[in-house]
Amino acid sequence: MISDIIIQPLLMWYDANKRILPWRGSCDPYKIWVSEIMLQQTRVEAVKPYYDRFMKALPTISDLADAPSQQLLKLWEGLGYYNRARNLQKAAGIIMDQYGGMMPREYELLLSLPGIGSYTAGAIASIAFEGPYPAVDGNVLRILTRLMADESNVLDPKTKKRMEDELKGIMPKGRPGDFNQALMELGATVCLPNGMPKCERCPWQEMCLARERGLLERIPHKEKKKARQVEKKTVLLIRDGDRTLIRRREGSGLLAGLYEFPTFDGWLEKENIERQVAAFGYQPLYIKPLEDARHIFTHKEWHMKGYLVKVADTGGKNLEKTERLLIYPQEIEAAYPIPSAFKAYTKYVDISLGNEQFLR
């Protein structure tokens, strides 16, 4: 069992060592909610500029609920896991319709919103409303299993539920939000996911059973996941002068609603590439192979072969009604969200994605 003797040294360490982050120190549930969703499976340093831009563009729940889908996905471009953004907007709509635009305080109501699981509900309830609810994610599971030398499979939902139940019994009155943030901070900066933890900086170093028993490299224990499915793809960068052809992906499934360079299942031969380009109404002038690329999703991998295809001038043919656009790089960067799966090929059409646009 987790003992309450861990609380005081952890909070003292947190008060002295916590990082200054754009969303930290705020009790605004909207800011806490957006930051926690962005931080899922994404590094803090990567999230900071996205969070700032998002809050400037959509400063309230009402703004989020009313935002055009394309604007929302463009703000999210490069962060990946785009269902997070879609669920944010779905939940914002529910909050506007059912709760008068105010984030509900109750943990159970938070948990009922799209995209909010026990971790996010616990974070919002504790940080914004001082509710006595834990927020257990991978970082927290790692430090707690090491603390107790617990070799349970951390990928098993039962392990997470058990840790949540144990933490509920010791949540400190008056500082539940700080306690949750301290656990997150310890996992992010000291008890690291890759490589050996920085035990000399840990407030629990004298209590940690994994350290005492030499089990730091074995814990956390993760049973192997199923191998990701590999899908072969052909990506065509079709250019007419300085303009590039993009098209909108279907409204359901992976990367739905985003724009892409025309992408096809399998590795196409030259004749098939010519046939696909002709189907778009163009005459290819030449086809140049580009480097192969790979992109890893949660449950699958794309192994891509790319081709730069120069086509004959079309005289500015308007393709917008067919969900295809032949437009300039600056237009794509301004308004059309392109997933980072295509990042290896954007340099060939003078396009930058996400944060790259602001670092040039």
Protein model, in words:
This protein is 39% helix and 14% strand. The protein has helices at 7-17, 29-39, 44-57, 61-66, 69-76, 83-98, 107-111, 118-129, 138-147, 157-168, 176-189, 209-213, 270-279, 329-335; strands at residues 229-240, 243-248, 259-260, 263-265, 284-296, 300-311, 324-327. It has 360 residues and is an alpha+beta fold. The chain has 14 helices and seven strands. Helix 2 packs across helix 3, helix 2 packs antiparallel against helix 8 and helix 9 packs across helix 11 (176-189). The radius of gyration is 24 Å and the shape is globular. Strands 1, 2, 3, 4, 5, 6 and 7 form a seven-stranded mixed beta sheet that branches. It folds into two domains: 4-213, Hypothetical protein, domain 2 (Endonuclease III, domain 1); 229-358, Alpha-Beta Complex (Nucleoside Triphosphate Pyrophosphohydrolase), CATH 3.90.79.10. The termini are far apart. The model has no long low-confidence stretch (mean pLDDT 93).
Low-confidence stretches: none
What is the helix content? 25-40%
Q: How is the biggest beta sheet arranged?
A: 7 strands, mixed
Structural class: alpha+beta
Mean pLDDT: 93
Query: Which architecture of the largest domain would the CATH scheme give at its second level?
Result: Orthogonal Bundle
What is the CATH superfamily classification of the largest domain?
Answer: Hypothetical protein, domain 2
By DSSP (H or I, 4+ residues per run), the number of helices equals: 14
Number of strands: 7
Rg from Cα: 24 Å
